[in-house]
Amino acid sequence: MDRSRSALQVVALTIAAVLASVACVALGLWQGQRTLDIIEAEQAALSSPIPVLDAATVEGYPGESIGRPVTAEGEYDAAGQQLIASRAWQGQPGSWVVTPVRVGSETVAVLRGWVPTVDSPALAVPDGTVTITGTLQPFDEFYGDGTVLPDGQLAAISRPVLEQAWGTPALSLVLVLASQSPESVPAPEPVDPSVRTANVPFPLQNAAYTLQWFVFGVFVWLMWWLWLRRAPREDAAETTADSLDA
To answer: Shortest CA distance to 80 belongs to which of 139, 166, 174?
Structure first.
């Protein structure tokens, strides 16, 4: 084959490989960004508070409701308030305060926070309707018998014991209070939820598409390299055939 013709083929093929690989990388980056956008959008959706009765029922809850920010509007039932013993806050001994809130026809266990003593003025709850926001977490599973201590406090946030004390079924998750309107003054010290917002499922299909485009980009250059190795052999074979014909 004419050398100039062969050189032109190499140049043309190289340009085509460059363009194809650039396109593959660009598409891979676009698909990767789309994957990140999907994750961010779904995480944002999970981070937006929803009504507590949309996140859980008395019968149960979906997995994504654990760690989910929620809102609720109802009235505290001060008579049902319970203290969870042996809970520390910044190294100080004290108790957690769990108070039922009537939301419509349902009862929600609200972990209001920490108090240093059983007669703390922060135990008082406001009268009338309150609007609260917080994070959902499961009831405690340890102390399965719902141990009640001699002083009347509970050893854990036990759903069966609370339901027995309240005389009604409770929503299947605990609401850890973050804010309340109107505020309680003084108020229990806030405690952190034991869970964080649930992770969203990783969009494997989109991630696979991203990897696929990058693989295509590598494949383009592999084919280019194979062609460069094969072309001289084909040229030599063609030259030999021409010589024999002559």
So the answer is: 166
Structural domain count, the chain? 2
CA–CA gap between residue 116 and residue 122 (Å, rounded) = 9
User: Same domain, yes or no, for 117 and 155?
Assistant: yes
Count the Cβ atoms, other than its own, within 10 Å of residue 122.
Answer: 18
Please give the Cα distance from 167 to 154 (Å, whole number): 16
Q: Are 103 and 56 in contact (CB under 8 A)?
A: no
> Is residue 161 domain-shared with residue 116, that is, in the same domain?
yes
With a pLDDT cut of 90, the percent of the chain lying above it is 37
Spatial separation of the C-alpha atoms in residues 164 and 174, rounded to whole Å: 16
Task: State whether 147 and 225 are in the same domain.
Answer: no
**Do 174 and 91 fall into the same domain?**
yes
Q: Are residues 33 and 95 in the same domain?
A: no
Tell whether pTM > 0.90. no
The DSSP bridge pattern shows strands 82-84 and 50-51 to be unpaired
Tell me if 152 sits within 8 A of 95, measured CB to CB.
no
Residue 189 counted as domain residue: no
CB 77 within 8 A of CB 167: no
Tell me the C-alpha distance between 128 and 101, whole Å: 11
Task: Give the range of the structural domain holding residue 119, as residue numbers without chain letter.
Answer: 69-181
| 83 DSSP β-pair partners | 97
DSSP letter, residue 215: H
Rounded CA separation 102/125 (Å): 13
- Tens of pLDDT, residues 29-74: 887 777 776 666 566 556 678 899 998 999 999 878 888 899 999 9
Question: What tokens does 157 get?
Answer: 């946030």
